[in-house]
Amino acid sequence: MSTTGVTRPQSPHLASGATGIDSQAGRSRYRFLKLSIAVVLLVGLTGYFIWESTIYVPPEKDARASLPGQFVPAQAGGQIPVGADYSNYSTNPPTSGPYWSDGTFPLPSGYVVTIPVQWGIYNQEIPVEALVGSMQRGGVVIWYNDQAGCDIICLQALDLLVKPMVQDQHHLILVPNHAMRHPVAVTSWTRMLTLDHVDGASIRQFIKVHEGRYNPDHH
């Protein structure tokens, strides 16, 4: 009997077997994908922990001589009440240590300064305990002492340097300090640059590198 033109139905067993093979291949690809992701994550985490433990140095411990300014080991810090005196800073001006908590403080002139001290230019001395807190928030403080040699020309040069940077929202404070022995000093957390005169290039480089470099609370 001729079978020309007759289409035999496909065996259901064959169709089922093909579907099973496809399903098995899909599961294999899924397992491979999950395994690949796990391996990538493991390698990434391992690399991070190796970097953190053997390569990464937090800013407050980074003593590289290639960075601007002298490294000063961090002192134990933390907040102290507004108005409290602290006389055990390791340097003058200080670069770390205890600092005033938030508040306000009246200067001898009657001007009331806000704590943390706002970025800007000041012509009155501000207690160092207030300014250490500004460095703890990522700021750079530029100090000058007219009694140690920063004359009117020095002060004008500092004003010309700092004013446009403050206007550009840089975290900078320019303030007198009659207790230090240097005409000019620039400080950030654990770093200090002392100068006998205004060296604009060195000050700019210090600010470029250290402004915001140490800012644990992300202010």
Layout of SSEs?
Layout: H1 12-55, E1 70-71, E2 79-80, E3 99-100, E4 103-106, E5 112-115, E6 120-121, H2 128-136, E7 140-144, H3 152-167, E8 172-176, E9 184-188, E10 191-195, H4 200-210
Structure characteristics:
219 residues; alpha/beta; Glutaredoxin; 6-stranded mixed sheet; 4 helices; elongated
Account of the protein in words:
- The chain is α/β, with parallel strands linked by helices.
- It has 2 domains: 10-56; 64-210, Glutaredoxin.
- Helices cover 37% and strands 16% of the residues.
- The chain is built from 4 helices and 10 strands, in the order H-E-E-E-E-E-E-H-E-H-E-E-E-H.
- Strands 1-10-9-7-8-6 form a 6-stranded mixed sheet, with helices on both faces. It has a two-stranded parallel sheet with strand order 2-3.
- The longest helix has 44 residues, at 12-55.
- The protein is elongated.
CATH architecture type of the largest domain: 3-Layer(aba) Sandwich
The CATH class of the largest domain, by name, is Alpha Beta
**Unreliably modeled segments:** 11-16, 50-54
What is the β-strand count? 10
Measured by DSSP, the beta-strand proportion falls in 15-25%
Instruction: State the helical fraction.
Output: 25-40%
The biggest sheet, with number of strands, parallel, antiparallel or mixed sense and barrel status, is: 6 strands, mixed
Mean pLDDT: 85
